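New here. Invent one.

***
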Amino acid sequence: MATEKLNRLKPFMLPIAMIGGFLFYPWMGYVQFLSPYLIFAMLFITYCKLDFRHIALGRFQWVLLGVQMLLSVLSYLAIVWLNHTVAEGVFICVFIPTATAAPVICAMLGGSLPKLATYSLLCNVFVAIVGPFVLAMIGDTEYSFWESFLMIFRMVMPLLLGPLLASFLIRHVFPRFHEAVKAHQSVSFYLWAISLFIIVGGCVSFIIKNYRAEHLWTMVWLAVGALFVCLLQFKAGRMIGRRFGDPVSGGQGMGQKNTVLAVWIALAYMNPVASIAPASYIAWQNIINSWQIMRHKSSVGNKP
């Protein structure tokens, strides 16, 4: 009976989570510490169904990375002559690596988990190495290369590699537990709904706290720019993925971003106002993800 009620509620859970996050944003400070644990759990559950033999770098990953880096440069050059702060904010929304949670959403949408897990590793390592050089050129910071590298590395690698290593160890040490986790992939969906509630609430809280009347129009253009590159990256990623037989992995690999890292980089290296772009991107990408998941579950549910 409880399972039946949950299944009826499932199509509405993500919109409810987003609306709830928007309404209860003043209290997000009490629960935001849960976000990394929820992401770790989601990734661990998802990686338990991953066949490690299928993780391999190929043309798909390199093409996706090349287009992402090209788009980041072009977006910056196209806007910098109009407004440097907006250019910084939009640039970081494109340059920043794939979100650690992207493989979870990819798996929910029926994409290739090995392909996206491989790209996520490649993209995050690439940005950790190249990022300090690029940010030193366009940003304003006193951090050295090694300080920047270690800070970025510490922010992305534990959550990226931890669940992967944990699932690998569990597979070989506790195979029965591994099979039990593998058989309950739907748990990731409910964890994602809780995460979405916290993420959206944190996003709204961040924007309200950082609102300044004198920066109103700059903030508006940062939010609009973030929406534009969000749509562009999901579309471009799906187009590239389609050429390799996997539009879902392409779209999530390029479109779903590590926005927590993006906000931190904007605050550390750029005009702090630029952080409104990645903060807005949090909302945009999660609206798209929620729509994709509901659409996918609806189409799957309608199949005979």
